[in-house]
Amino acid sequence: MERVGAGRDLVRGYVDALNAVDEAMKAAIPSLERLADVLGLVRSRRISRSGQVGTYAYTVHGAGCRFANGNGTEIDVDFAVDGSQIFDLWRLHWYGLSLPEPFDVTDQDLRTAVRSLQPLLTEVRPGWFSVAN
Fold this sequence. Notes:
Radius of gyration: 15 Å
Largest sheet: 7 strands, antiparallel
């Protein structure tokens, strides 16, 4: 049960980090209404596919973006068609490994942790989650 508690802390840390990215990006790019709009800015060539915005390095990929802060922590997120931020266990796992003090957790412990955090998180499709509004 202790590992599940640690998994919950990891998931909460990811959500907090994602919220910090959202705030920093909106502060750096005032026209950004939601984080998913970064995809449109890249597609319209108003910003490059990778670069530095505020305190974050970013790299746009497919349907999402990977952000890294100054200490190397990586927050990778995809965007649903409606622009909501979605993530899977792989992204949570990678976030844990990128922390200044890397934290490795099993997929099963992450799965249990994510399910225990409902209704904070919603499973939008099998294995993919979003922060509930």
